[in-house]
Amino acid sequence: MTATQLDPGLLDPPRWAVRAAHAAALVILPSGIWRLLLAAGFTAGYTQAGYEAMGFTGWGAVYVVGLSVAGELLALLTLGLVRPWGEVLPRWIPLLGGRRPNPRTVTVAAGLGAGALTLILTQFAFWWAFPHPNMTPLGNTVAGFLYLPLVAWGPLLAAVTIAYHRRRRVAGA
């Protein structure tokens, strides 16, 4: 099977959309690194008793690492909305490699993802309004600042999704 070529009528993404896509991939890093530190055995702001109660060892560590890796992989998918590998899927992807994804499917999936992320992650804007008794005061403050960028993930994805939809609509795809 021959790979599908990029659509020559497709406009380049606007510069702001490319920057927003990169920002979406970066806003998840601070909290992900913090979770990786927890999995590595650092209390990272928790009291010793709080760290032990949260169960960040054994399968808890596997879960925390998996959450960090899965989150970053999902955030990196945003780049597919502005990069050529999002227009024609890479050949190494089983069953779909070399094909163009359906723009409507991509737009709906990204839009639903942006809405879900916004609903789920907005709570981190209010981190300091809720008590965290298992954390030290400094740890609570630092963790709040590390999770605060996640609030932007949903809106950034929404903006990039709108730019993707507009580009595809102009191209007639």
Structure description:
With 173 residues, the protein is mainly α. The protein has helices spanning 15-26, 29-39, 48-54, 59-77, 103-121, 137-147, 153-171. Helix 2 (29-39) runs antiparallel to helix 4 (59-77) and helix 5 runs antiparallel to helix 7. The longest helix has 19 residues, at 59-77. The relative contact order is 0.21. Keywords: Membrane, Transmembrane, Transmembrane helix. The chain crosses the membrane at residues 20-42, 62-85, 106-130, 142-164.
Our count of helices gives 7
Question: What percentage of the residues does DSSP assign to strands (E)?
Answer: under 5%
The helix/strand series, from N terminus to C terminus, equals: HHHHHHH
* Parts with pLDDT < 50 across at least 5 consecutive residues: none
Count the E strands. Answer: 0
Class computed from helices, strands and strand pairing: mainly alpha
**What separation lies between the terminal Cα atoms?**
22 Å
What number of structural domains do the residues give? 1
User: Which geometry do the CA atoms define?
Assistant: elongated
**Alpha-carbon Rg, integer:** 19 Å
Query: What percentage of residues falls in helices of 4 or more residues?
Result: 55-70%
Largest sheet: none
| Mean of all residue-level pLDDT scores | 89
Keywords: Membrane, Transmembrane, Transmembrane helix
Transmembrane segments: 20-42, 62-85, 106-130, 142-164
